[in-house]
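User: quick one, fold this
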Amino acid sequence: MSTPAPHPAARLWERELQGSVAFFLEYTNRDPASPGFGLTVDCTKDRRVASIASVGFALSAWVIAAERGYLSRAEALALVQGTLHTLSANASHHRGFFAHFLDMDSAARVGRCEYSTIDTALCLNGVITAAAYFAEPAVAELAQGLLERVDWRFIVFERGGRTLFRMAYNPDRGGDYVTGEPGFIAQWDMAAEQKMMYLQAAGQLEPALARRLYQGFARDMREYAGQPVIVNPGGNLFAYQFSEAWLDTARYLDPDGIDWFNNTRLATLANRDFCLEHSARHRTYHARSWGLSAGDSPWGYDVSGSAPCLETPKHNGTVSIYGALSALPFTPEPVTDMALYLYEQHPPTWGPYGFYDAYNLDVSPPWYSQALYGIDKGCSLIMIENYLSGLIWKTYTDSPAIQHALAVLGFTQRGGGRHA
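Assistant:
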């Protein structure tokens, strides 16, 4: 009896995984003599600038590469250990919070960019994942040092009876995001991509403070298809995906019983339906082409979103391919249908590293991105792997650091059992 041919989507997902790992290999500094060893570009448009968040996705990529045999375990481990050494000894930071952008070669802060909480947290998610997967004493020691170095209390403040995190810090007048006096920048007072920060801080702060912080951000509710959805201000897909790329929200409810997995599923469906509702005005939008998030556009870096959200949704016909791909575990059928459609009907969306970032048919001539962002390619890589095997979800969520954090914050396992 002949073996059935694999489904076309299975072959496509495998090629996308291989291409994504190839991207990280090509656009990561792998010169062992360089102070910037292990740093990964922010965007392929400029190979000189690394994003500290891209490094977190790269560290997770090395785990996937080792598990799938794209790299030997020894090769992947060497990348991880060298990267953690760079982060520990060379990468510019303030009280453990990394500069958002680093020079690819020197690991020095680029210009007067901010020291970013969320970009640091994305990097540390990769640190936690790699340390848990490889379980090597030298890696574990470096990882623990990086986690303990972060001074979470530095960015905690009280406002209106709520305990909140600051969003960033910049000591330079005229620096990035500085509008008046230099110092703290904005605050995490909304539901967005920052949930990973509460997990990481729970390992360093006293439990009562960690729990107040987690309760501090607003849970703004809107409705989709008759069901409540906790929304972010702009309705951007990435804000529903970045924490969920690592934390297995399908296994846990939060202390208030919030089902973040279903929340992301509903927000994804709402994003798709919003595109369908606006398809008469935007040629790029239809049932097999949707996804409003952040990334490349005909006008440079763009942030788009959909209802339901807190603000008037901003969108311009640009479809974030990675934003849709990263929704695969939550809405597998429409994502798979879109991926096959793009691959078959829009060849310019595909390149040597798999899918490019975005496209827009509303401009003339039709625009197809030729760029890749590390955080975009990394998120879709992790989510595809999670859909196929659950590897990153299991590795990160079952790690000692995250298990401890879930217990401190009071997350419960589905089925009613309190997290032990």
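User: anything notable?
Assistant: The chain has one domain: 16-413.
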